Amino acid sequence: MALIVAAGRGERFGGEVPKLYRPLAGRPLLAWSAERLGRHPGIDGARVVIRAEDADLYARATAGLPLLAPVTGGATRQDSARLGLESLVPLAPERVLIHDAARPFPSVPLIDRLIAALAEGPAAIASVPVTDTLKRGGDDGRIAATVPRAGLWRAQTPQAFHFEAILAAHRQAAGQSLTDDAAVAEAAGLPVVLIAGDEDNIKVTEEADLRRAQRILGEAETRTGFGFDVHRFGPGDHVMLCGLAVPHDSGLLGHSDADVGLHAVTDALLGAIGDGDIGQHFPPSDPAWRDVDSARFAAHAAARVRAVGGRIVHVDVTLVCEAPRVAPHRERMRDRLAGILGVDRGRISVKATTTERLGFTGRGEGIAAQAIATVCLPAARP
Asked: pTM for the complete prediction?
């Protein structure tokens, strides 16, 4: 499980809106880390620890994200982490990742490394080696000493722990003023492993950090994928379109549930990231996919986008048929697609058209669908 600590006041940042709810590329800062942890396939559930007075801001910032109900934090960061851990006790997790919400970019590979490290020991943290020469300043503003940097690391989050061990350590350290969860673990005698962090996994503390985060996001590229699919009519009393069962005097024939809309969306997403097509991921020759809900295909494609650090910006689906009528079901289709793909419904468009009774769709022999997916990916680097 994951615990995201977002109960700080961000006093150094300033401004009327709390730091974690300031916009970053059009989304609240908190939403970036909450989505990455909440949707990671190796994390069973994610919970955010918030300030009670931020409840409304939190609800708006995380709408549509797969998160557990938030809990209220304490007076210090250490208190908030402990209270968050206590709230997870009824869920009995074996492992937990604790993350500072002010770090918006925990990458999928970084999270993978931390989870893997827990197979070898009770605690691991993301960290990067200190490469700058360090100076200790005196009261007069002059250098008092040069600090050897050998063996020094900068701690990041997420920090990963065996749940019972870190919970016991936090209970034991209650009332102290330790700066991160690794220090709590160290105080309890737990060995903590250093795992390679990420220089882009920055902490937003001041306004300049927010600008740097924006520059990191600016190092991105937008890709577009196209999907097209066709299924013929056959016996049945409904058709599956964009995840909904739409009443009709025929069904659609296919190895799965023949959801022509979701098949087109799946191919569009896979195409945007250059990851093959639906037939490669779900071969029709494999009986495992017979009659399966096509929502699994589209959700898989969305997960593949996230696995390479991508974000679904927009999906536009056009259904081509004389019947059934799509308009009465359009808004529910948008909601269903948004839920399957894990995006806001405002990023989903569903349209329908006919071919003026020309061609196989005009003759009522089947339904066609085309989809265009826009995906934002980290820019390829040398």
From this structure: 0.65
